[in-house]
Amino acid sequence: MLNPSEFIKESIEKIKNEIGDEKAIIALSGGVDSSVCSVLVQEAIGNNLIAVFVNHGLLREGEVEEVCGIFEDRLNFVYVDASSEFLEALNGVEDPEEKRKIIGKVFIDVFEREAEKIQAKFLVQGTIAPDWIESEGKIKSHHNLALPRGMVLELVEPVRELYKDEVREIGLELNLPKKLVYRQPFPGPGLAVRVIGYLTEEKLAICRKADEIVREEIINNNLDGNLWQYFAVLTDTKVTGVKGDQRDFGYLVVLRMVASVDAMTAYIPELPWDVVRTISKRITSEVSEVTHVSLSISDKPPSTIEFA
Ligand code: XMP
């Protein structure tokens, strides 16, 4: 059994010894793993840790304000709005794997620029146990990372031995807001994996609005505790609808609401029909570009949780 206060005390000592007086950098996404690591390392080395929050233009509604609001005063925090750089690089790209690769590459570019500015020697990462157990422990615990322009950073992974539920316990002990600690996982490539086909500002905005409605309804109806993830996918399929007495031709949105323990497998739990119907009604009435909402009922496997 993990003793959170013991763990925090021991980690802080360990991190102090590892990093000493050098500078460290972390990519803070606002997810529980990178948030916990940021706060732990800040407690150990203070402002020698720079937490960089990159807006890649693929975040959810309100996410920038939320993450900045929580961390601006608590960390040596740098907000980088690189959304146009990402969206330009993604312009005209349809293939999901291609999108992921581009996002990864631009992210490293942006991040390396920040690491160079502060001459960081260490990179803090929120790796947790399932991340490396899946690769059969082949990744060494202490390793370096060479960045494309030549910087070499030594990795520090404070929660490497922990599982998600344990990271959450540490987050609570560190007084991180409950909303953040229990936040549903959100993939690194963000809405790029939930907008099918070409990415445009318009499609991202539609996906964002639909996603916000899903989140509001699930949270307001206290269903978030039973779901691993709940979100909206904007397909590139257009379907006929009718609004008022006018024929309409708009997007098909798919609702994906899954239960899981570790995302390796997932299933669709019983969902309260009234909530599903409310979500559908709200999306078609509040997001004018959408004419049709459908519900995904496929487990993982055979489907993956994300659509791309
Ligand atoms: P799939 O879609 O493979 O997703 O069933 C399993 C879990 O991983 C998340 N996911 C990602 N997380 N970068 C991430 O940080 C990614 O590229 C990525 N792709 C999927 C997904 O949200 C789910 O929780």
From TrEMBL:
Catalysed conversion reaction: XMP + L-glutamine + ATP + H2O = GMP + L-glutamate + AMP + diphosphate + 2 H(+)
Residue stretches in coiled coil: none
Domain of life: Archaea
Role according to the record: Catalyzes the synthesis of GMP from XMP.
GO CC annotations, alphabetized: cytosol
Assembly and oligomerization: Heterodimer composed of a glutamine amidotransferase subunit (A) and a GMP-binding subunit (B).
Name of protein: GMP synthase [glutamine-hydrolyzing] subunit B
GO molecular function, one term: ATP binding
Pfam families according to UniProt: GMP_synt_C, NAD_synthase
Span of domain GMPS ATP-PPase: 2-183
Enzyme class: ligase
Enzyme Commission no: 6.3.5.2
UniProt-annotated binding residues for ATP: 29-35
Known pathway: Purine metabolism; GMP biosynthesis; GMP from XMP (L-Gln route): step 1/1
SUPFAM superfamilies recorded: Adenine nucleotide alpha hydrolases-like, GMP synthetase C-terminal dimerisation domain
